[in-house]
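Q: My collaborator sent me two sequences in one message, no labels, and asked for predicted structures for both. Can we handle them in order? The first one she listed is below.
A: Yes, handling them in the order given. First sequence, followed by its structure tokens:
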Amino acid sequence: MSALSLTGLDATRAAAETDLAEVGGEVVSLDRFEVEGRSDQPYGASLAASAQKGSVALIDTPQSVQVIPEALIEDQGARTLADALRNVAGVMPGGYYENWDYYRIRGFDAAFATFVDGLRGGNGMSDELFALEQVEILKGPASSLFGQGPLGGLVNLVSKRPRAKPFLELGYTAGSEAFSEVTIDANRPLLSGERLLGRFTAVFRNKNSFVDQADSQRLHLAPSLSWRISDSTTITVLGKLSEYDITHAMPLPAKGTVLPNPNGPIPLNRFVGEPGTSRGEESSRAFGYELAHRFSDVLTLRQNLRYDHYEQRWTLMFYPGYLGDDGRTLYRYPYNYWQTWHDFAVDTRLEADVRAGGLRHQVAAGIDVFRKDLSGLGQTIDLSDLSAYVPLDLYAPAYGAAPLPELQPPYSVAEDGRTAGFYLHDHVTLPANVTATVGGRYDFTKQDGVKQEAFTPRAGVTWRFRPDASLYATYSESFDPQGTRMTTASGTPVDPERGRNWEAGLKTTAADGRLTATAAVYQLTRQNVATADPLHPGSYTLAGEQRSRGFEFDGRFAVTPSWDLVLAYAYTDAVITADNTLPVGDRTQNVPRHSGSVWSNYTFRRGALEGFGVGIGARCYSDQAGDLPNTFTLPAYALAELALSYAAGPVRVQVNVTNLFDRTYYAGAYNALYVLPGQPRTIRAGVTWSF
């Protein structure tokens, strides 16, 4: 069996980097290559190197790892990370604010653990999907490789990189809610011999929200350079500049949306801010590089580094404070917030592929360092003074009728975080087609002067019982510091959360690699959850525990060279198992017990309809708990989508319709005042010119 890794292909080109192939169960290096046209497995993937810190084939990895390639993102017309993540079982995108990347993995929040090119970098701000080659999802704890993070898993975003073949793509898309978007993707060799390559991607997007008064504008620029210094040394430099201006569409109360209200349903397009306010400005700058030096056929040094600078400026955001007894008057508090933070991350590792004692060892050993400095100013009213809240009639709003209260003097916010971790992992090939993965990581963290340490192990075994199928079982742990604001009765910050994961599964790459699938069962236990101390008000104890059990199936099938199919299903039972204040048995928020999606794309390759493509999809979710403790639920829903395309020569035209039947649904909730209505039917049409 021989299967090339052709992840992230689009309709006109394939990756032109040094790639890997799986030959006889081993992963070997391939020379640079070019492929014209669409791959026979455009949605498939055999590797997720950035997210795994190595080149072990996915079928031999004792963990559920999924890859969303560029081809699938393009076919679905996805614009947000939530759009892409809907293709993965056990990942529930959506939250209680628009324009933020909220998602949960296997029942637990994971949005603030997003990685970019293998380095910590997520902060909840919306990432630009057009600038990505693929999205990688690791399910279950990843602390043994990446350090502190949530128990459910992590998402790694892989930026577009220079390619050997020159191309230029220009795109324009327009659609519902005054949507307008211009995209540029330009790539070319800058020196002969493909030693220096350059790429530049750009997006300008303007759109309104379905909520009155709300809109957003984004400018995103991403230049990159790849320099092959020698036959054994390469460096890729990645940059980013992003400006994002938003008038926020705030959530609505549960009463009048998912709960009855004597005044009737609240219009879902209701704006609860004040016209001309509720404005957010976000900007980010990033610079980094990926360096690889091959000492020999068995030893390679890699170093990834990135510096990020973020700024947020929120002006007169009107947040829900409380709902009046009449059920129609929402009392809001205005809020100003300005913050700046700097992130610095560097990961340095050695990768060795050696034979010792008659066994093959694929070893990764390294150290990574992360530093975060944040400073900010906040300003709001005296929240204890109910008369200072600004009323708004949700059914007959009279904006500007109530005078704005005097805001309190600004207060300052500062955070200083440091993390250093040492990790060692060995993937050992044993007799009888068995491989074992063992390793661990030791972390030192320091936040606002408070030091904490943790060791997180990982052990797993994989049996490839046939060349295209394997069984695996694994155990792994996580840790996640809870900050310095929650303290025990003695005044010391609470210890980090700890997590344990038991998992087993089946993987296959059958039908000559055209079918890739993973089925997994797991149990996650989240421990050391901080809960209110009943004996010492204002203090916390670590009496909380939560558990998630489930089954997942992810499948990609290139049925024919023209027909691609993506399937996902998850059963997730995530509940409170111990707590001082929350009822045992309550479900974790925004997590459906049953969820699933299907996407089918067919492209006509001959005959009168040659060049036409049709994509249809659906996603379904059972009801979800809207808050903790559970007092209301978000109803179950099912959504359909449609894509139509036509490609002729250098031109491709595409129409995408989401929420095809215009269903009413709710994307997420935080509490009884924060329920976010879902996006109604959206139609977008675009054209792309390729040169």
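Q: And the one she listed second?
A: Here it is, processed independently of the first:
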Amino acid sequence: MYAAMLAARLDLASTAGCHTAVVKARRGQSLPVLLREGFVPIGWERAHLLTIAP
């Protein structure tokens, strides 16, 4: 289910002509684990910035 939602979000961002999509993590997940996976802290949120290929 998560993969389908992520794919839909990336497709929507690509259709809109965006260069980057943002994926937010659940607040309960461990920050060190998220940092290893490429997430970055942005304010109170933990987000992963995904580059969209043209």
